[in-house]
Design goal:
It is a single chain. The protein is mainly alpha-helical. The protein has a single domain, classed as Ferritin, CATH 1.20.1260. The radius of gyration is 19 Å and the shape is elongated.
Length: 152
């Protein structure tokens, strides 16, 4: 096998870069949602509505968890894309582990924000890109590619 990157690995790397871009968009939308929830909590506090304030604070907390995951995700998308292109086989396991962690964060955002459409949509798109990225990394072409690079 040549040192050329096979199509499935190349597709995974492209999806990682797309994931980086969508995650950056998710960061922006999460910041907007966090500002809105914080503002709502402050208004509810002023009028003395503790139930609504608690709900707004819960939603702000869920978005904050998603925001932290997205910021870490930006670094991980770029890091994994470069490492995968260089033939590092550990990227398959790292990608699967990071997808598992992000799956938990996705559940927190989906159920903790009362299904806020902006935050939920972009979070689900990032998660779906993660799934679409990990699958080709475990293909036969990818295994041979990583094995050959390891033999060098």
């Amino acid at each position: 096998m040549s040192a050329e990157v096979p199509a499935k690995v190349h597709t995974a790397v492209r999806l990682m870069y797309i994931g980086f871009a969508v995650t950056a968009l998710d960061v922006v939308l999460s910041l907007v949602a966090l500002g809105r929830y914080t503002h709502d909590a402050n208004l509810d506090k002023k009028i003395g509505d503790t139930t609504a304030q608690g709900t707004a604070n819960q939603m702000a907390g869920a978005v904050t968890i998603g925001l932290i995951a997205d910021l870490l995700g930006l670094a991980c998308w770029a890091w994994l894309a470069v490492a995968t292109r260089r033939g590092n086989g550990w990227t398959r396991i790292a990608g699967a582990v990071l997808l598992g962690i992000y799956s938990i964060c996705t559940l927190i955002v989906v159920f903790g924000t009362k299904r806020d459409p902006g935050a939920v949509l972009t979070t689900l798109v990032v998660w779906a890109l993660g799934v679409a990225t990990v699958i080709p990394l475990f293909s036969q072409q990818a295994r041979e590619f990583f094995y050959n690079w390891r033999q060098r």
